[in-house]
Design brief:
The protein has 137 residues and is α/β, with parallel strands linked by helices. It has 4 helices and 5 strands. The strands form 2 sheets. Strands 4-3-5 form a 3-stranded parallel beta sheet, sandwiched between helices. The chain has a two-stranded parallel ribbon with strand order 1-2. The longest helix has 17 residues.
């Protein structure tokens, strides 16, 4: 790619097989900090809606989630881990799966803003069907 003299910069990921610059964030530390804040606020059953396990930043965010639980002495519950695809629909679907469980989480960490929008839509829908259920947990 560099031989073509076209400037390329990848955002939030390294492109396999492509020689270009990348701008990256520490996804693991960011997720650890977010989930740690939830724990400090008193939440214990924290779920995560991850991105695809094939994407490096999704794996790093999941690891940060697990790091925060471990640091707080909380047990990881595989039933509270859902995999989306960084799209609104998957955030909604995963959130509905979590919210309709007999023992729903008391907090949910969405791994990106688009899935978080789907999560918020699901919360509003469930709260409309079962008023107070979400806020009272």
């Amino acid at each position: 790619m560099r031989d073509a003299e076209i400037p390329i910069v990848a955002l939030d990921r390294k492109l396999a097989g492509v020689d270009c610059d990348s701008v990256l964030v520490d996804n693991r530390a960011g997720a650890r900090e977010c989930v740690g804040s939830m724990i400090q606020a008193g939440y214990k059953r924290i779920a995560i809606i991850c991105g695809p396990s094939s994407i490096h930043n999704a794996r790093e965010r999941l690891q940060g989630y697990k790091d925060a639980l471990r640091a707080a002495g909380l047990k990881e519950d595989p039933a509270l881990i859902r995999y989306g695809d960084y799209r609104h629909e998957s955030g909604y679907r995963c959130a509905m799966e979590l919210l309709k469980r007999e023992r729903a989480p008391d907090a949910i960490f969405a791994s990106n803003g688009t899935m978080a929008q789907g999560l918020l839509e699901a919360i509003a829908e469930v709260d409309e069907l079962l008023p107070g259920e979400i806020r009272d947990r």
